[in-house]
Specification:
about 140 residues; mainly alpha; 8 helices; globular
């Protein structure tokens, strides 16, 4: 389990760009959501040098706010192994920004293994589907 203190947050792309409060306010304020699409966060987060650590940490510990370019609803679906249209959209959005679906699946699988003691069947199925699509 990755702890907050184990991540070098000073390397985060968001540190010098925005007040980090916006990552929490975005989920609770509809008027901000109208002004700032989730794409703003995805564009900021996906090239971040600590994206993988942030994603791992957020799956483990964060139930609110935008972390690693994902919303709390998206992370909840990932935690539960629900690779539905919500998670498919995240994967598609990340892929356009240079993060392969397999990278996200690997992180989610790691979370699933740590919390369920086995490989997530949905993650395996999605991985197979993505590989078929790539061929």
């Amino acid at each position: 389990m990755l702890k907050y203190s184990e991540v070098n947050w000073l390397q985060a792309a968001c540190q010098d760009v925005v007040k980090t409060d916006i990552f929490y306010v975005w989920e609770e304020n509809r008027s901000i959501k109208k002004l700032m699409n989730i794409d703003v966060f995805r564009n900021l987060c996906t090239p971040c040098p600590i994206w993988r650590e942030c994603m791992r940490y957020s799956l483990e510990s964060e139930t609110y706010g935008v972390w690693a370019g994902t919303t709390s609803i998206e992370r909840q679906a990932m935690r539960m192994g629900q690779f539905n249209s919500t998670v498919a959209r995240v994967m598609s959005d990340f892929e356009v920004r240079g993060i392969a679906p397999d990278e996200l699946i690997e992180i989610v699988d790691e979370y699933q293994k740590n919390h369920q003691g086995e490989d997530s069947p949905r993650a395996r199925a999605l991985r197979v589907q993505e590989r078929k699509r790539a061929i």
